[in-house]
Amino acid sequence: MSGFLPEPHALLARLLPGHASICLADIRRALAAAFSAGGISDADLDARFIIAHVLDLSVGEIPLRGELRPTDGQIARLIAMGHRRLKGEPVARLLGEWDFYGRTFRLTPATLVPRPDTETLVDIILRHLADAPALVADLGTGSGAILATLLAERPRWRGIATDLSAEALTTACANAAAIGVADRTLFVRASYAAALAPGRFDLIASNPPYIATAVLAGLSREVRDHDPALALDGGADGLAAYRVLAPQALAALRPGGRIALEIGFDQAVAVTAILAAAGFAAIETSRDLGGNDRVVAALKPA
Ligand SMILES: C[S@@+](CC[C@H](N)C(=O)[O-])C[C@H]1O[C@@H](n2cnc3c(N)ncnc32)[C@H](O)[C@@H]1O
Question: Does the Cβ of 112 fall within 6 Å of ligand 1?
C-alpha cells in the first residue's frame, strides 16, 4: 500500500505499529527524514515537538531518551500526526496548544497561533509600564495570549479582551482561567474598542489582522489553511483594522493613556500616520529581534 503514497508518507509507513523493537531515536530519525523529504524546513524540531507531545516528555528530553520504546498506541499516534504534518498542518495545530512568553495557550480553529513577534509587543509594554493598578484592553484577543500574559506579569492590572469571534473568546477565557488571571479579565464580543467605556483605559494593546487581502493566497499553507482568515485579513492594503481601531482607542483611553500595536514589517509609516490623524502623540516604532519594525506605540495627549 505504501507504494501508492508520496515518498515522505511512505517513509512514515515504515514505522507501522507492531515493531516492538523500534526506539525513540529511530522514530525521531524517521519522522525527521519524512518531514525533510516533504520540504519541511524545521524537520527535526517538528519531529521532537510531536514526539514530546505524544510521549509526555519535554522537547529537551528527546535526545536523552533515545532508547525508550514507545507503545504501539503511541507509535500509531506519532504516525497519524506525521501524516497530518506532511499534509501541511502546523505543529501547533497538531498539538492543539502553543507556548507564548513561557506559558501554554490552548488553541482552537478560531484562534491564531500566537507568534514570537507578538512577544516583542508584550516586552515593550512591560518595559514601559510598571505594576501600578491599571485598566488595560486587548483588541482582537484570539487565544488571549497578550492580555493573559500582561495580567500574569502585572498582578495589579485588570483587563478587557474583545474579539468578533465568540469561539476565540471562549478559548481566551479558558486560557485566562488556566493561567490564573480570569478573575481580573472580562471578555466582550465586540468590534475592537467600540464597546469600551470612554476615557477609562490606561493601556490599549492590539495585534489586529494586518495582511493585505491579495497577499493571503501567497502565504505558506501552514498559515493560509490553518490560521483563521478573520485573524489575518487586513483588507485591501492591510491597514483596515488600524483605521477603525485608532479613533475608538483614543476615545477609550484616559488622557496620558498609551496604545501599543503590532504591525507588519512595512507598515510603520502608514500606522504612524493613522495614529497621528486620530490624535495620538509621542508615536514611536520599535523593532523585533529580527530587526523588523514590529510595534508602534503612542500616547493620548493630556
Ligand atoms: C492577528 S489575530 C491576533 C490574536 C491574538 N491577539 C494574538 O496576538 O495572538 C487578530 C484577532 O482579531 C480578531 N478580529 C478580527 N476582526 C476584529 C474586529 N473587527 N473586532 C475585534 N476583533 C477582531 C480576530 O478574530 C483575531 O482573533
Answer: yes
